[in-house]
From TrEMBL, chain A:
CDD domains noted in UniProt: TRAPPC1_MUM2 (cd14855)
Organism of derivation: Durio zibethinus
Listed GO CC annotations: endoplasmic reticulum; Golgi apparatus; TRAPP complex
Protein name: Trafficking protein particle complex subunit
Taxonomic path: Eukaryota, Viridiplantae, Streptophyta, Embryophyta, Tracheophyta
Gene behind this protein: LOC111290684
Keywords recorded for this protein, A-Z: Endoplasmic reticulum, ER-Golgi transport, Golgi apparatus, Transport
TrEMBL record, chain B:
Subunit structure: Part of the multisubunit transport protein particle (TRAPP) complex.
A Gene Ontology biological process term: endoplasmic reticulum to Golgi vesicle-mediated transport
Native source species: Durio zibethinus (Durian)
Record family assignment: Belongs to the TRAPP small subunits family. TRAPPC4 subfamily.
CDD domains: TRAPPC4_synbindin
Keyword check for Metal-binding: no
Lineage: Eukaryota, Viridiplantae, Streptophyta, Embryophyta, Tracheophyta
Gene3D superfamilies: 3.30.450.70
Name recorded for this polypeptide: Trafficking protein particle complex subunit
Keywords: Endoplasmic reticulum, ER-Golgi transport, Golgi apparatus, Transport
């Protein structure tokens, strides 16, 4: 029996699933900075409370996009630092890596941002993010009971996402 | 065809002390390069907060559509980063070479003041030589 939009289930954080997971956590933001989804599978260290963590993540992405647009060595015409960029305008980054994690980022033309945090040895995860975007389109965007701009509470999406992330090498 | 677009050196408080551009269309003026360097310093610090595990030391590589940014942080907090074409290899080795040149020609220079912009001729000369050698080696592969 399938049903969408389980109302009494809170979206996050979830109980960590199997230990075969390479991904630490995932964030999904809309263009206004609302965190639509946050799921964690493997996060030993929590530095801030969830609200601050989401805001910090969104702020970091905004600033990094601004930085890459300004630093772009192949284009001569650039706006000033800090000017909000439209999705697809200016050079955008798709991943960064530290010694403890790798963050992969993808922004759709509608301004939905997907962020996946994995271990640092992961390869290029752009196709993975594209697949997750397709899952979002199928299970969330096409869900008639889902209001855009609100946190995602679709059980099927969560299950499909967990299953897919478990299969990432 | 330049594999390396530009090199930045930032001191431990985030101020830009060295910036050299090697022929990119996106050359920045002094103010912009200062702003970009400080922004990078702050972003690096924020990335520590978002780490899922302990022991994060900072961003090592940023991959964008048209360039890659490799960063090396010394034990004293000085950051060396280089903007290059996507997929350029051996940038980590180059950053270590630049670090060595900096310690030799800048820090051992008795007239150099800490945290001030680097104005050492020998450093510039040797840096250009190291890059040319690197390019020759890269093209020769």
């Amino acid at each position: 029996m399938q049903f969408f939009g389980g109302s009494e289930i809170s979206p996050s954080p979830s109980v960590p699933t199997t230990t075969g997971n390479n991904a630490h956590m995932i964030y999904v933001f809309n263009r206004n900075g609302v965190c639509l989804l946050y799921r964690e599978w493997n996060r030993p260290l929590h530095t801030l409370n969830p609200q601050q963590d989401h805001k910090l993540m969104f702020g970091l992405l905004f600033s990094l996009k601004s930085l890459t647009a300004k630093m772009d060595p192949t284009s001569a015409e650039k706006g000033n630092l800090g000017v909000p960029q439209l999705p697809g305008q200016g050079c955008s980054f798709h991943s960064f890596r530290t010694n403890t994690y790798k963050l992969s980022f993808m922004e759709t033309p509608s301004g939905i941002k997907f962020i996946l945090v994995t271990n640092p040895r992961s390869g290029d995860l752009r196709e993975t993010l594209m697949y997750i975007y397709n899952l979002y389109v199928e299970y969330v965007a096409k869900n008639p009971l889902y209001t855009p701009g609100t946190p995602i509470r679709c059980e099927l999406f969560n299950t499909a996402l967990d299953q897919y992330v478990r299969s990432i090498p | 065809m330049a594999a390396i677009y530009s090199i930045y050196i930032i001191d431990k408080s985030g101020g830009l002390i060295f910036y050299k551009d090697y022929g990119s269309k996106g050359r920045m003026d002094t103010n912009d390069s200062l702003r970009v360097a400080s922004l990078w310093h702050s972003m690096d610090a924020i990335s520590h907060q978002l780490s899922p595990t302990t022991g994060c030391s900072g961003i090592e590589l940023l991959e964008a559509d048209t360039f890659d940014l490799h960063c090396f942080q010394s034990l004293t907090g000085t950051k060396f980063f280089v903007v290059c074409e996507p997929g350029t290899q051996c940038m980590d080795a180059l950053l270590k070479v630049i670090y060595e040149l900096c310690t030799d020609y800048v820090l051992k220079n008795p007239f150099y003041e800490m945290e001030m912009p680097i104005r050492c001729e020998l450093f510039d000369i040797n840096l250009t030589q190291a890059l040319l050698k690197d390019r020759v080696v890269l093209l020769g592969r």
